Amino acid sequence: MKRVIAALIICLLLTGCWDQVQLKKMLFADIIGLDYEGDGKQLKVSFVISSLRNVHQGGGIANNLYLESKGKNIYHAVDNTNKEMPGVLAALETRLFLLSTRFAKDQPLNYLDITSQFRTNPLYGYLAVYDGDLSKLLATKKFKEDLTAADFLVGLLEDEHKRGTIPSNQLLDYILGGGRFLNDFALNRFEPYENGARLAGTALFKDGKYTGVNLNNEDTQLAVLMNGAVGRSQPLVGNIGGKRYTTLVKEVKNDVHIISSDDGLSEINLSLKLDLKLIEDGHKVKKHTNTMLTELEKKITDDLTAKISNMIATLQKANCDIFQLGHEVAAYHPKLFKGKDWWREQYPKINIKPIVRVRILNSGVLD
């Protein structure tokens, strides 16, 4: 009897179906592309809508429907689309917001704030930059392996993020996060490639605006490791004396050490400790001696230190503090910190030194 009463109470609490939209009338936007129309500030919003052809029990053939709309903001563009296309456009399942480089240079997050007001908001979608003709890319019907635009582009992001080589860049982190001391960050960047696109590092943002400066794929991976990525067997590849080495990252430890003197802030050390599994090192040996391993660890350390130093120089040139070092100074050395404007002047000039330590876990390439 108690079960019957409980079931009746649950039924009374459930929302009725009088206000529900029929599923077949829903247009689920998988990708939303953002650009400007012409030389003005009116938004041109592109929608890639997922649909199925030849539907049968258990599935169908995935297909893209491409739409463009204009508006003062995303909400306005969605409303215009609903007036131009039968059905109801829904952003509930939007997996990717793709920004043109031109749009990215004009405080794009200010335009994306409104997505949190959607009744069904897509805050878990990814945010990325495309350095090419956005409309042409999103209008492409099929990509490699007959994938739709959403499955292809989101698939690249998800796979590389799982490998720990790129940042996550979910919209939620930027709209609701609010934890950044400075509005500096790096968004994953796509570039045209063959008949589609490929990942090409990250685009650097300062004060929420795209600087036009990018990190390549290798620099992006190193920046992710420096920023606290978990060891997920990320491949690290390099050359030592003309011989190629390949390792897999098994564990990562990071730390920040701020050095000051009577004259003020003098240096920031970024510590990176890596436990690596050796795959190849260009030497045809089955087992390394302790002396060989020690020498190899030093050479890999020197190689990574040089690469990370160049990556940091790029960040300083763009005045983009993606590691939020200004927050570290303000939080742990408040007497040194003299305001955000002061930090903007200091950041490009301060000596930021990477301290890399490498430990090889296996003594033989195939161990």
TrEMBL record:
The keyword Transmembrane does not apply. It is a lipid-anchor. It comes from the Bacteria. Keywords: Germination, Lipoprotein, Membrane, Palmitate, Signal. Pfam families: Spore_GerAC, Spore_GerAC_N. InterPro entries: GerAC_N, Spore_GerAC-like, Spore_GerAC-like_C, Spore_GerAC_C_sf. PROSITE patterns: PROKAR_LIPOPROTEIN. Residues 201-364 form the Spore germination GerAC-like C-terminal domain. This is Ger(X)C family spore germination protein. It comes from Paenibacillus roseopurpureus.
